[in-house]
Amino acid sequence: MPALNIFDFFPATRYRSTHFSIQFYPSYASKKMRIKKVMSHNLRKRGAPANARALEGVQSYNDEPPMNEPEMTGWIELDGVRLTRADIRMILRDRPTDFLRCGGEFFFVGNGCRARDHFGVMQGNCPKGTLTCESGMSGKIIPDVTDLPLEEAIITAVRLRSDEGVTALSGGVDSTLVAYLAGRECVAVGMQGSHDLRQAQHAAGALNLSCSLVEITRSEIADALPVVIGTIPKKDPVNTGIALTLYFITRWAGEHGFCRIITGQAADELFGGYLRYLNTTTLEEDLARDFAALEQQAERDQSVAALHGTYFSMPYLDMRVVRAARRIPASEKVQGKLRKVPLRTVAERHIGPELAWYEKKAMQYGSGVWKELCSLARKKGYKRSVQDYIDHISRVEHGH
Prior knowledge:
alpha/beta, 3 domains, 13 strands, Rossmann fold, 6-stranded antiparallel β-sheet, globular
């Protein structure tokens, strides 16, 4: 039964819901305020003593001085509990410093304060992991979470994100484990006959997941290319190829009414998934450098997602998962020719060994988008440099 935030009791709502329950954030609501009463349709017309008594519990909030509704993208959790807008408003009013302990993926502005999640997954006009208020109060946001074993950390991270949305599935271990744990509808994109479409279909079938397979055409890539180049901050071939693939995932999600897209992003940087890690002698340093670059990747990805009114949610960037991954020595993440060993070991218990140990290409290659991008560049006379083709589009379309 969905929880209704406190603002739905204001007169403007006219009690539209047929059935609902009231849930308050337990650290702030007294026992008297923890109302779990199921209400009937159109309370104003029917009325009932029990319903009237239930509403008495929230009457004090109507007597409070008015506060602007917080503007927020994403979601917030504290102590493993997802916060409703009512919870957020209550904390803003009473104890805004509690946001310094919050996890989630969020940017919000309200009551003279603004805040953004610790890792900067969500975009916003303040530094990542900060809370600043006009009153002069400020601080670093560091999620207060319990250290968990890797498997439990991943399960918890996915649970907190899977109450809504669609999962982007490519068939690799990162996205397949998330898709299985989330249990939500999936979407896969690629050129006709591409590796990712075949593997996503196979993974979804093996795990009994519903998955929409979206075929991209050459003309769609050509049409999307100027839009993507004008949107992403770093306009190079790798970022353009990735962003193009994400463009079609987010377009499908937006067209089908989804805002949140759950992904397997950041697993490579946390667990040693890139091919180059097999030959490095400085794996620990390489992992740290690549993890630090995730902030720029998030800016790229969320910029593309925003084009279609969506955003990416990344369970592997949950503080619980990051801490669990950092406790594992780099030498255990890459062993011989095997990469992401700890993640695959966990995944094997959920999705089976075949899918857990399957090696796949990066999304821009597996989807066939990179091959088509190179083909478009050649047709336009840029036979040796995709970068020159991207620069040309940037100049012609956007004056850069």
